[in-house]
Amino acid sequence: MSRIGSLRVLSFAIPGLILTVAGGGWWYSQRRPLPVPVAGFVQDVPVTVFGLGAVEAQVLSRIGFEVPGTLIDLAADHGDRVPAGAVLARLNPISQQARVARAEAAVLSAEAAAARADAQRERAEAQFTQRQATARRRRDLANRGVGAQEAAELAETEQELARVDLLVNAADAGVARAAQAEARANLETERATLAKHTLRAPFDALVIARSREAGTALNPGEPVFTLVAPETVWMQAFIDEGRAGDLALGQTGMVTLRSRPGRPVAAQIVRIGLEADRVTEERRVYLRCSTCPAMPVVGEQAEVVIETGRLPRARLLPEQALHGFDGAAGTVWTIEEGRLARRHVAIAARLVDGRVAITDGLPEDVALVSQVGARFTVGRAARAVPQP
Fold first, then answer.
1. Could you report the per-residue pLDDT of 329-384, keeping only the tens digit for each?
2. How far apart are CA 264 and CA 258, in angstroms?
3. Could you say which of 5, 47, 168, 232 would form a disulfide bridge with 309 (CB–CB 3.0 to 4.6 Å)?
4. How many CB atoms lie within 10 A of CB 41?
């Protein structure tokens, strides 16, 4: 074959070879069965929700004195357990003790004035009784013509004056008794104020903070101690509203304190808040620890995982493998009769690891794609590759 003939053969062969290679590449990339990871069935799937929160106390009091004064004695400190009614601190009582003594003297004076008023009232009663009898006798004598009419009228006038005096003395006695009651009330007030110079524990408590020391001048209401009731310590967690629908009282959760990483403790839901946070769109859930190793630190951060149910059998799919997911349903890729297809399915539950559980809506022989590829098209040949 001549050189020119060879060139002609090559001119026809090369384009054909290029077309053959291009066609083979197109078939390999577009028509060959695409290996696709699929989600298998998982048995006994726990459905959990995650929340962040902190250790709190249902009963926590920052207590101080109701009256001003100088702190002279402290009988409790950080970490002490105190029974209800135990003395915690005292203010300088000297000024108030003087007020109590003055109030006691005022009571004695009022009692004496009341006794004097009662005596005067009794004397006025006796005088009225005497004048009444004299007026009655002289009127009787005057009516019989034995005594003078003028004497009878004078006796009746004296009787009326005695009656008026009796009314005045009775009123004075009432005023004296009112003054006596006021003095006694003032005394009780001063004694109550004196009692407020002693600070006592309002309940069986643990002292978690002492914020003032002896010698400090205090204003009313200024906190001296922070107390908690240890049996009321619980965990407050904030749960996303979108995952809080299945929460219920009594459900079990695992609480991990920040100071004890990797050592979760069991807890139980004892309260679910009835008002959600409008800004963070979260609900407050309270769990009480049943096996706490020690008194946790109030305010310490905690992580909470709560089990809201279990699915006997489900296929688990990453949320990013869903299209149009609205929290309850979405569109998934499937392999049906060896080709890619799409289906709209309902979601049974969302898991804390970012996966969703599908329990129904797909036939058993339909493979559920767990990882979506960029070259996915409906009808593309595919073969299922089970995930490990």
1. 888 988 888 888 898 988 888 888 888 888 887 888 888 888 887 778 888 888 88
2. 10
3. 47
4. 12
- Out of 1.10.1760, 2.40.420, 3.40.50, 3.30.70, which CATH number does the structure's domain 32-45+311-386 have? 2.40.420
**Collapsing DSSP states into helix, strand and coil, what is residue 230?**
helix
For domain 60-90+199-228, give the CATH number: 2.40.50.100
User: Tell me, what amino acid is at 33?
Assistant: P
- Report the predicted TM-score, pTM, of the whole model to 2 decimal places: 0.68
Q: Looking at this protein, which amino acid is placed at residue 205?
A: A
* Residues present in the chain in total: 388
- Tokens 């593309």 — which residue? 380
Residue found under tokens 């970490």? 79
State the residue for tokens 């089970």. 386
State the amino acid at position 278 in one-letter form.
R
Q: Which residue has the tokens 């001119």?
A: 11
Q: Which contacts (CB < 8 Å, 24+ apart) does range 20-23 have? A: none
**Sequence-ordered alpha helix ranges (H) in the chain:** 3-30, 94-144, 149-195
CB 288 within 8 A of CB 270: yes
